[in-house]
Amino acid sequence: SGNYYDQGEIRKKELEQSCCVLGIPASDVTVIDHRDLPDNSAVEWDTQLLATLVLKHIEAKNINLVVTFDAGGVSGHANHVSLHTAVRYSVCTLLWVPPWGCRVLVLESVNLFRKYISFLDVLISCLLPRDALFILTEEETEQAKRAMRCHRSQLLWFRHLYLLFSRYLVVNSLRLL
């Protein structure tokens, strides 16, 4: 939960509401409360600790696809970058090749201009190399916005702009790790 500004419990409830909007049952949502994993954009999380927790969850849930941030963390948030580093460490350093064939896709970070041109980035994304491209329908985009709005404690002014202009609510390009 990260317990940012002592809002851990609030954020857990917001996450559950958001997942409900997306059709994800509460039984499939895992919130990790660990004192060494604070929600703080200035804190890099311990790679080995996070890798262990992620692998434990993947194995427990028999997950066959992981989607995570790339090295840029989409927004540069240290926690996002740490998650990418831990998953990369799990796959590359530990030579992690689970028997069920789990694949890892990383969400492409784009420059500030592309990040906020909404649907106009679809054409650019179609022309550039990638391993997977997800283009949301108008209905899926609205569903994603409803899910984002569930995170009331995090809806600062700039996130409202994100809801209006972000390409990530319309198109997402990913690469295999």
Blueprint of the fold:
Layout: H1 8-21, H2 47-61, E1 65-69, H3 78-93, E2 103-107, H4 112-115, H5 121-127, E3 132-135, H6 138-149, H7 157-165, E4 171-176
Task: Write up what this structure looks like.
By secondary structure, this protein is an alpha+beta fold. The chain has a domain at 43-109. Helix content is 44%, strand content 11%. The chain has 7 helices and 4 strands; from the N terminus they run ααβαβααβααβ. The protein has helices at 8-21, 47-61, 78-93, 112-115, 121-127, 138-149, 157-165; strands at residues 65-69, 103-107, 132-135, 171-176. A 4-stranded mixed β-sheet has the order 1-2-4-3, with helices on one face. Helix 3 links the parallel strand 1 and strand 2 (103-107). Helix 1 runs antiparallel to helix 6 and helix 2 packs across helix 3. The longest helix has 16 residues, at 78-93. The protein is globular and about 40 Å long. The two termini are 26 Å apart. The model has no long low-confidence stretch (mean pLDDT 90). It is an enzyme of class 3 (hydrolase). Its EC number is 3.5.1.89. Belongs to the PIGL family. This is N-acetylglucosaminylphosphatidylinositol deacetylase. One of its GO terms (molecular function) is N-acetylglucosaminylphosphatidylinositol deacetylase activity.
